[in-house]
Amino acid sequence: MIFLNNHNDKEIRDEINSMVGHPYSFLERLKMGGNGCSRLYVEEYSPKFSKHFGESQDRKTINIELREKGILVYINNKVNNYVWVIPYYRLNIYQTKHFSIYADGAFIKLKKDSVFPMNKKFVDRLMQLRSDYLEPVNAI
Predict the structure, then answer these.
(1) 101 exposed, middle or buried (CB, 10 Å; 0-12, 13-18, 19+)?
(2) Please, which contacts does 96-105 make with residues 24 or more away whose CB atoms are closer than 8 Å?
(3) pLDDT, tens digit (0-9, with 9 covering 90-100), for 8-18
(4) Of all residues in the chain, what percent are helix, strand and coil, respectively (each to 5)?
(5) Per DSSP, what are the bridge partners of residue 101?
(6) N or C, which end of the chain is more exposed by having fewer CB within 10 Å?
(7) Cα separation of 140 and 138, whole Å?
(8) Which helix (H) or strand (E) holds 66?
(9) What is the predicted pLDDT for the residue at 70?
(10) Any bridge partners for residue 75, and if so which?
């Protein structure tokens, strides 16, 4: 689900928290070594995101935040900011020529340029959290 994230709307915040959990506390973030990545550059995206990224040819960027039950993908646009909420059970990640995030029939493919190696630790943590979250489901 994608939300317009320009204002601190309590209803949207509550909906996001119900889908992917509350933000980690300050102490939890310190123990984890952070819960977000540095800016990632978008190579390609599905048509579903055309209106969210806008028509400009500027470099398109996202940030990812980890939550207990999923991730938030922040889409940075000059006019509006959006957040793509993805619970772990809907999240698919592929690492090929691109680092790709898929959910609900939509995708964002990220460049593996000089910025991506700095996020390797973050991606490993994301994969581990996703695995830990889905493990009890797979054990049944």
Answers:
(1) buried
(2) 98/43, 98/44, 99/40, 99/123, 101/73, 104/1, 105/46, 105/48
(3) 788 999 999 99
(4) 35, 30, 30
(5) 93, 108
(6) C
(7) 6
(8) strand 61-66
(9) 95
(10) 62, 82
